Amino acid sequence: MRGRELRGELDAFLAETELDLVAFRRDLHMHPELAFAEYRTTQRIAERLTAAGLSPQVLPRGTGLICDVGSGDGPTVALRADIDALPLQDEKDVPYRSTVAGACHACGHDVHTTVLLGTSLFLAQQAVAGLLPGRVRLIFQPAEELPGGALEVMAHGGISGVDRIFGLHCDPRVDVGQLGLRAGPITSACDRLVVRVSGPGGHTARPHLTADLVFALAKILTELPAALSRRVDPRSSLSLVWGRVEAGTAANAIPDDGVAEGTVRCLDEEAWHAAPDLIKSLLESVASAYGIEATMDYTRGVPPVVNDEVSVEMLGEAAERVLGAGAVVPTQQSLGGEDFAWYLESIPGAFARLGTRSPDGVTYDIHQGTFDVDEKAIAMGVRVMAATALTALCEVGPLDSTVTSALA
Ligand SMILES: [Zn+2]
Ligand SMILES: [Zn+2]
Questions:
Q1: Ligand 1 mean position to 56 CA, how many Å?
Q2: Main-chain dihedrals φ then ψ at residue 157, nearest 5 degrees
Q3: Averaged over 222-250, what is the pLDDT?
């Protein structure tokens, strides 16, 4: 049985390569690179793929790459990892701590990259042995955090001819050895909002002669999210949260301008489409009540990642086969944004949550300087991605009888 054989082949492969993969991850972790600056990371990946006999194609900007394994005939399944780090200080005390001030792999993309590298090396071996029933497109995507890297990959034909795409993300709330799955939306839309306000300033002794701009800005900060929650279906969970506010320089002077920045997150695609106009009209009504001018810059971010049901089944089937029964756990839709969503607007696929918490260990959070993973998750990720690619290749497109019998 190919299922049992596959598990044994993965065990043998990982017995030889797991330590090397952990070392690869630690090297990336020590040398994090921000969005669209992942030159060293891209070179490291390219070197390893080339050494395995593959032909990586670096994207024109020099960050991120695409590489095919297997023959052109038959179905094509894509596996995607994001490779960029975050502009955060690494706060861990570990030997593989970031050596770059203000940059840290705090979203686990070093793990995703390493998982896809391990998967690539395994699939390259399978292809040589004639066991790959189609083609696997490896996508090492730059700049997920910007976001924008997915669009860069797509602009260069990254998913043309691809039948189905899979990706995963570290989940520090799930134990290592488990995989969180959900059909339908699994992440949320995330946009950016910048509000600029202006009005005549003056002495704090005479607010009535000014627009009392700080007071008015404070009203915008509290009124806008409150009014939104009354104007939108609560099931869409549209939420505006401020992250930065700035106005004034002295305690006794009313400034004549100010700025507030925040994010707008949303579970539902319909509410997401309506959000900019609604926020603009609410902003104008609050601003006019206090006699100030307000303008907004609304930057569209990513739509929600909407997992295709059939692809989720493939992931689940593959994970149970190589991680064991009970490895698949349900997961909830998060309010985080993820640019994998853009691939899924064009082709079917699914995004999974890879457990990275040590059983009974600390529960970290992503986007924190303390974030770290149980590195056993790397081998788990390789098992899942490799098995998913093989499962999907056998189920996508016209089935070859030799392949079907091989997987039976
Ligand atoms: Zn992130
Ligand atoms: Zn991430």
A1: 25
A2: 75, 20
A3: 92
Q: Give whole-number Cα distances, 4 to 77, 149, 324, in Å.
A: 22, 37, 11
How far, in Å, CA of 194 to CA of 179, rounded? 37
Q: Which-ligand-closest: CA of 83?
A: 2
**What pairing do the DSSP bridges indicate for beta strands 135-141 and 164-175?**
unpaired
Indicate the residue type of 155: A
Angle at 228 between CA 224 and CA 231, to 5 degrees: 140
d(CA 350, CA 182): 9
What's the CA gap between 339 and 167, in Å, rounded? 11
Q: How far is it, in rounded angstroms, from Cα 13 to Cα 307? A: 30
Cβ(31)–Cβ(97) below 8 Å = no
Asked if residues 149 and 64 have their Cβ atoms less than 8 Å apart, the reply is: yes
Tokens (6 digits) for 357: 């918490």
Which ligand is nearest to the Cα of residue 169, counting in written order?
2
Which of these, 48, 163, 171, lies nearest to 108 by C-alpha position?
171
> Within a 13 Å sphere around the CA of 155, how many CA atoms are in the beta-carbon half?
11
CA 112 to centroid of ligand 2, rounded, Å: 9
293-352 pLDDT tens trace: 999 999 998 889 999 999 999 999 999 999 999 999 999 999 889 999 999 999 999 999
The edge-to-edge listing of strands for the beta sheet with 293-302 is 239-247, 257-266, 189-198, 293-302
Tell me the Ramachandran region of residue 276: left when phi exceeds 0, alpha when psi lies from -120 to 50, beta otherwise: alpha
**How many other C-beta atoms can be found within 10 angstroms of the C-beta atom of residue 404?**
13
In 3D, which of 116, 151, 109, 115 has the Cα closest to residue 136? 116
Tokens linked to 158? 């990254």
Please tell me the distance between residue 143's alpha carbon and the centre of ligand 2 in angstroms: 10
pTM listed for this prediction: 0.84
